[in-house]
Amino acid sequence: MKREYRIFLGSLMAVTALLVARILLKQESGGSVEPLGWLLVGSAVYMEVMQMFYDDQISLSFSGPLTILAVATQPFWFVLLMILLFTSSGKLFQKYYYHEQEHFFDIKWCFNLTRFIFIAALIRLLFFGINPVSASGIFSWTMASLLFIVVNALLVGTKISLYTQTYRLKSYTATTTILSIYYHVAITLLLVYVEAVGGNVGVLMIMMALLPMQGEILRHSGVHKLNPTLIQDELTGAFNRRFMQRKITEWLHHKHPFAVWFIDMDDFKKINDTHGHVIGDHILIHFVSQIKEDLRKEDQIVRYRGDEFCILFQNAEEAQRVHARWKDTWLKYRAESGETIRYGFSSGIAEYTCEDEMTFFEFLDTVDRQMYEEKRKKAKRTNLEIS
User: Fold this and answer.
1) Can you tell me the distance from the alpha carbon of 43 to that of 138, in angstroms, rounded to the nearest whole number?
2) 310 pairs with which residues across the strands?
3) pTM for the model
4) What is the pLDDT of residue 176?
5) How many CB atoms lie within 10 A of CB 11?
6) What is the pLDDT of residue 363?
7) How far is the C-alpha of 258 from the C-alpha of 251, rounded, in Å?
8) Which terminus of the chain has a smaller tally of CB atoms within 10 A, N or C?
9) How would you write the pLDDT of the chain (387 residues) with one tens digit per residue?
10) 3-state DSSP call for residue 368?
């Protein structure tokens, strides 16, 4: 872990601890938990788990508005408990559903827990006790929602920038930022206002309407597409292995048939040794751009590792057609110097037909075996042609 990231996270945890201590010691933090509180806990846990299906990118979902409502209506110690429960439930689901190899209480979990508590403490200090029904109340809770969005974006962007040593705040485009602000503010005001007017029953009815909608809102609104760097290979723009693991695990879990076209560049080390690694990088970028032109929107190219790629198809027949068109194809890359470099690749198809129970890593082992078998066959054919 980068030294700058450790300093950033340590500082954030220290400031958060000071804010929480001030709230618990200086403000009214006691009181009983209302039935609404447990409704919020259940809803936040459910939404955080559901969000894992769309967690290929940073998303706000509805956990933010639920946290703001909890800050406005519940004792702060209960807000802390609520945040601990829904951040841990999301992590637990992520670890066991996607067979993540990382530890549960890792640095990612610490950051997510700390940033939610930090934002909740800020909102508690600045906006607690304001009547949401009044005009000033509506304005104040709108500001609270905007504060949540801005601070969340800054913390996440800073984390990714420090961890990857590259500037990532620019990933927040105008369109996705406007959409996230619109949904976050609208849901926050709706929940706070309904709670003030209709009480627990009103909030329950709103939550019953919102819970089934969350997945579709996240899928179609673009709110979750705030940081594509989490699922994209930085060099080529293809998806990365993390995205591939999530997608294939979901298909295996739901017994959804799919196919993977695996690709391994031929003699890529020789290209790097002969022409240099910069040219090698340009060839990888060129290859991805050429393949993308022949893929449908729903088919996804993944940089598996180094000079190896996988293309995910939900239709095995389409995978076979694309594979047939590209098999034994040689591509040409024209360098800035004017030199033309020819390169090829070995490839094969691995299909899942819902007949076997397997995990992502078991399927990956099948892909690896078939990839190297295809390279062996291609090398044998080449030797025969030379003979």
Assistant:
1) 23
2) 262, 302
3) 0.62
4) 60
5) 10
6) 82
7) 8
8) C
9) 567 778 888 899 999 999 999 888 876 555 677 777 777 787 777 767 666 555 443 344 677 888 888 888 888 888 898 888 888 887 777 666 655 555 666 777 888 889 899 999 999 888 876 666 677 778 888 888 888 888 887 887 787 777 666 655 555 555 566 767 777 788 888 888 887 777 777 777 777 777 666 555 555 544 444 445 567 787 888 888 878 887 888 788 778 889 998 888 888 888 888 888 899 999 999 999 999 888 888 888 999 888 889 999 988 888 888 888 888 788 999 888 888 899 988 888 888 887 777 778 788 877 777 777 776 776 666 555 555
10) helix
Q: DSSP letter string over 135-189?
A: HHHHHHHHHHHHHHHHHHHHHHHHHHHHHHTS--GGGS-HHHHHHHHHHHHHHHH
* C-alpha span between 337 and 283 (Å, rounded): 14
313 membership: H or E segment, kind and range:
strand 308-313
Q: Do 99 and 252 contact (CB within 8 A), yes or no?
A: no
Q: Which amino acid is at 319?
A: A
- Amino acid letter at 165? Q
177-196: string of b/e by CB count within 10 Å (b at 16+)? eebbbebbbebbbbbbbbbb
Q: Report d(CA 80, CA 83) in Å as an integer.
A: 5
Give the DSSP letter string of 76-128.
HHHHHHHHHHHHHHHHHHHHHHTT--S-TT-HHHHHHHHHHHHHHHHHHHHHT
**How far is residue 118's CA from residue 128's CA, in Å, rounded to a whole number?**
15
| Continuous H helices in 254-359 | 268-275, 277-292, 316-326
Architecture of domain 241-386: 2-Layer Sandwich (3.30)
Residues whose CB falls within 8 Å of the CB of residue 203, separated by 6 or more in sequence, listed in order? 36, 39, 69, 191, 194, 195
**225 touches 57 (CB < 8 A):** yes
CA distance 383 to 387: 6
Domain(s) labelled CATH 3.30.70.270 in the chain stretch across: 241-386
